[in-house]
UniProtKB/TrEMBL annotation:
Source organism of this protein record: Triticum urartu (Red wild einkorn)
Identification of the protein by name: NB-ARC domain-containing protein
Every NB-ARC domain range: 13-142
Annotated InterPro entries: NB-ARC, P-loop_NTPase
Domain of life: Eukaryota
Amino acid sequence: MRTEVIKANTIDEAVEGILDELKYTRGKENVIYFDGWDGLGASAVVQAVAQQLASNEKKWQWGLQFEQVIHIDCSKWESTRAVQREIAEQLKLPNQVMQMFGKQDEEDDFNGITDQQSRAGIAEVAIEIQRSIQGSRFLLVLHNGSNE
């Protein structure tokens, strides 16, 4: 596994460094972790990268042809299910899949699982997410805004 340190003094330089790293890792599964400047500025950089890649014009400019860019802000963590729901919404999964969330929420309420953080992902939804991205080039951008 390759470890690369992106040296940057500004948000723009950091964004450029991450986009360059994405070009280098083309066709590979990879994880890029950006901590910012002792934690400062990381969210701004991650948001800027996601915005750049969401723009078709910018994607092609950087030579990064992702079929789907999914950007999830986890800074206010709710649950694995909430992240799963956001991914499903951004992938525009069919209504029958989206309805699984409401049904599982009702079941959890009935069973006394009221703490949002205790609500786990839904296996059937995970299968549908996998099915929808299978064989495509995609980028999942998560930023958590914490030390976790």
